[in-house]
Amino acid sequence: MPTAIRAPQPAAGSGNTVTCLIRFALANIRRRPERFVLAVLGIALAIACVTVVRTISASFAATGEESVADVLGSAALWVVPAAGVHYDAQAGALIADGDAPEISIPGGWTATRVLSGLVDIDGEGVSLRGSDEIASGTATVGHALAERLAVVDGGTVTVGGRRLQVSVEAAGQSLTVQTALARSLVGERGWWLVNAPPGGEHRRDLGAAFGAAVGLPFTPDPAVRPDGDGAGLVYDTVGGSGPLTFEQKYSALFSGKVTSSTLGLISTIGLGLGFVIAVSSFLAAVTERRREFGIMSSIGLADEVLYFFLVESAVIFVTAYLVGVTAAGIAVAVVIPGIASVASWLQGAALTAMFLPAMAIVGALVPVHRLLQQRPVSLLGDR
């Protein structure tokens, strides 16, 4: 009796199924390449807009954290004037808007009065600070400012008509000179940096204790502004609740100015329009291929119809994401090279990627939902 020879069957498994779905999705893309290109470009444009905004936001956040860290150093408390402080974009540093509060330092506490203002050096707006810790005839310059002024360690810089020997330290954008020289240029504008008594560095109520001793309100929240009619405000940089440091909270204020601005609103609307473009593309594909999916459903492959759309959606969104973030990187490098950096672009791209899974899944489910609710016979009957 002859032996029946059966044709080899493909191995059943998730790997084989995924491969088939990918091949099926790519075949459909090749069938309608113009639809694929238009969908990718529309979504990529939206992703590029969001990535640019997120990149700028990340750059501002880094700037905010660096600027406040440059001010605080190791201080636990920051006592600012009633007029507050502001960030000067040209100087790249925080500047005091009023005179440092007149306070008497309680026993055991260590405090340093720092004068702060804006001066012009060789046509550059520079953050000038005054400290008693700086010797007469010398100036301390941050690395970033040293590069901007083209000065080196051991060189000289002219401030207020006086030639000072430069010591390049830290990474900030400020130039620190002896208090008397700073006072002659910026007056009494400035703030206090305060450290706790020995043994109390890790207390969570330093702001409350110091504020009560000097008669000033306190807060661990950098979003709180001083009362213009008051005497000043104590920022507690080590107190408060939550996992974020004072520097991180301050940086969030900078990034929030971007994401909550008109630019942030436009990017969000653009992302929504990109999603609408994707859904419209899938709706057209569903309408065009109803009979094909009816055949698949009639032979028990209804689930594969959903999986197919999920795979095709993933291919479109991943391609659009790569195109969009690349375009965003080129745009920020060409248009705003002084603001954005590679690190901020990568952070912006990562934040944008968080939207992709939900958009890809929902983008596939919306058009295919009604399709799966119909009987295969009704799908086969459509022309």
Automatic annotation (TrEMBL):
<keyword id="KW-1133">Transmembrane helix</keyword>
<keyword id="KW-0472">Membrane</keyword>
<feature type="transmembrane region" description="Helical">
    <location>
        <begin position="36"/>
        <end position="56"/>
    </location>
</feature>
<protein>
    <recommendedName>
        <fullName>ABC transporter substrate-binding protein</fullName>
    </recommendedName>
</protein>
<feature type="transmembrane region" description="Helical">
    <location>
        <begin position="306"/>
        <end position="339"/>
    </location>
</feature>
<dbReference type="GO" id="GO:0005886">
    <property type="term" value="C:plasma membrane"/>
</dbReference>
<keyword id="KW-0812">Transmembrane</keyword>
<keyword id="KW-0813">Transport</keyword>
<dbReference type="InterPro" id="IPR051125">
    <property type="entry name" value="ABC-4/HrtB_transporter"/>
</dbReference>
<feature type="transmembrane region" description="Helical">
    <location>
        <begin position="345"/>
        <end position="366"/>
    </location>
</feature>
<feature type="transmembrane region" description="Helical">
    <location>
        <begin position="263"/>
        <end position="286"/>
    </location>
</feature>
